[in-house]
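User: Before I run my own analysis I want an independent prediction to cross-check against. Here's the chain; please return only the structure tokens and, at the end, one sentence I can use as a sanity check.
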Amino acid sequence: MTVGRAEFLRQVIQKLDASGIAWCCLRNHKEMFEDSRSDVDLMVLREDIPLFESLLEESCRETGSCLAQEASYLNFSRTYFTPASQWVRIDYESEIRWRVFPVLRARSVLLRRVRRDGLWVASAPDEAVVLWIAALFRHSLSDRYRLRLQELAAEMPDSLPETLKVCREALGGLGPRLWKMQQASFAGVDFGSLWLDFKWALRLRMVSSFSRTKDFFAYLAYDLARGLHRIIHPRGFFVAVESSSWTHAQSIGLLWKFDRVFPVAKSIFFPPGTTRLSLGQRARTAFTLFRGGLVLCPILPGGQIPMPRRTRALWIRSAGDHQWIGAGLPSGWMIPPLSEGDPVEACYQVSLRALTRAPASTLPHRRLFCVLLGLDGSGKTTLARHLAEHAGSTVPSFELRYFHFMPTSSSRPLFPWPNQAAEPKKRELAPGNGETLASIARLFRNWIRALGGLGIRNRYFRGVLLGDRYLYNYILDPASVRYFGPAWLAALFLQLAPRPDLLLILETTPETLLQRKQELSPEEIRAQSTILREFPFVAGRVARLDATRAPGELAQECLQEIHLALEKK
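Assistant: Structure tokens:
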């Protein structure tokens, strides 16, 4: 049986009851198992939160579900995707409050909880307080909340002592007033003035006792710390779709597909064909990611949009024949091509794979500089893409950053896309003195870039830094980098440049290279093959691989070499 929402939640509840954690469902317990649009609102003690989260992770593993979103607002929130393609959002908190103003403590609510239909649920007065606070956040009382409050009024005891005690504990003098409104079915209520009175009641309640004042400053400090963490590590999702036919309606459709994870009210999208983001658009992007929303940016083929590196970001582009491929930051993981006729559904499925994949757990204090070296047509880009697809799924997993020839100094991400045009272009060797001096100057500039890009820029990166050819191009194919200086000078700069920890050399026959690409003549292929075979390449570890094998098999062998090199560092 495929595990769905109901099975996942029953697994969680069984583990909670078996663990002895004090918990209760604050609201919506009647629709909890069946209504996929309903969030699960739970309350636990603050000291039980680590154990509660470990039980959620255990239930996730046992049911085959995936954690898609983890956020921290006034409460904590986790959204799971079950094998039955159903979303389950679990919100859990250890206090009831409006902004930083305390309302009820978890211990008081849990002492009054009741057992109903196999669940621990909040008492009727406590649930009413929760609904009123939720309405205050929205400045409106929905019809669903209004009906539920009337039902709770009927469930509350007619004797005032217990009910009024809870109402006064939470809301002070406003509590009995709200309870009478519920009993009177909100007849003649002026909600405009009610929300203002509600706010002042909570503010004055904050100074009514020392414990509430202490809670106020504790919440204030706690929220400032969590807000700073959300600024550094936003919980939103940035999606760039590279397409020449993307429409406004498709953007809206994609946003609504992710409404359960990233609410549409918090999300934004930019006009199709965006080529660059203005300062205002960048500010809106940062604010949306901070709030935990989705930012959708459709761009034209060949366009470049700076992608945020401190949050999850996904670049989606067409691979031809109705195939779509994605690449994500910060892990550098690539999603294998997905066939789908509808672009919206294709982008949704690619994004879903990026959201529900297990996070890459990089090896601590280990960074591996790896270079792929081979002639044009040996399959370096294809192999790099297969390595990027497997980077987060191996054990142990690792993050991967890819660069072509030289590490870039900009924030533009690079990925080994399929059917990628060969760069740089070939030029005939017809240099003059000026061309020779210019090529030596470029060699010196690229040597400086290698020192800075591999040292300063990636100083704190822990994972695999994967390069395509690197400075070895000056030895193997100087025409491709327009180098016309002496070979000994290029070899000298190569010795002074940062040395790879792992050098993967792809070897194949000249006939195979001529079939794959016609950029080199047979004479050039034979000359470069001789250099590739006889040049004394220096690296921490050198592995020579047969490039005629299937890319998947070759990628598995390369992964073994990468893990061996990581273990020896």
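Sanity check: The longest strand covers residues 312-320.
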